């Protein structure tokens, strides 16, 4: 019997519109969440868990189509099957033909991998999907632990709430920011890995130890680690390079500022920079400047104005009636300009929560994504804090310097990588 489609089609949300025209083999716009369990994955149970999860997230069963004026999502009957990991991490999901699913679920030993095309969802939205997937999986595999049924999970949004376009919901034409004019940032350069591969370097710390160290400097964990990353990048810069600032772009979960339970995209970005040609370069000064920059940008009013400025383009009648084939080169050029203003991306997903009775079966959760530059992603589960660097560049000097800065402060780290050779952190 043919599966009935849950929805026919829907427009892409505002943040998603940039991804289809800028997706390439070099940068597939795919991110991965991985949940490492305490025991090997059982494929049959994982498939059953995925089927259950898709009932709760029906719009994940969709494909991306190209319309006359915009891309759009269309409901799909194509079955989605879990499989053993058989491709490099964050391989392409959208290839322009509008047939393939926009996510995949794979497994490798004790790891459950969820990979998502960014036009479908952001990190928080995909994390909701992963948590529900792992919840159903553990409820099946460890049913004996829950004789009265599995414990409740704290994400119970309705199908309508999960499918909500929150950009449209909070759009206001009367409240938008002026265009931003930013200088070009310092860019990391060098030889690239062949076949569009990514180097992945992952460091695992104690959450409590990291928090204690950040508090010693009188700052937050995000500011502390972003400052360490800026200092690590500076260690690879020449005096000539210091003419350009090191700029960190930080994705912001707008659900923290505007009530929303959407499992689609609902994020913005803010940029914070440090100019080594004008400032001391001392670690404490970097912390002060990063903290000042984030505090100035992370307000509901500023985020709303920026969100409205970007959304206003798609609500302008002239823009709306321009055919997609003419919009695509403009979107590509806009993306190129934006990328020149950024040195490194730095994303903190935050603390991952699961029902207490299930936590003993999970070791950690990590996240990373495809990228054309250096990208750092962080998440924590229990006392395990994981920061994962991805880059297409051969050099891992910045990553090594970052970990050495932290170990030089007395912090302990366990480093794993997909690289054949990676120099041990002293």
From TrEMBL:
Tell me which domain of life the UniProt entry assigns to the organism this sequence originates from.
Bacteria
Per the UniProt record, which residue ranges are transmembrane? Answer: none
Protein name in the entry: Alcohol acetyltransferase
Lineage runs: Bacteria, Bacillati, Bacillota, Clostridia, Eubacteriales
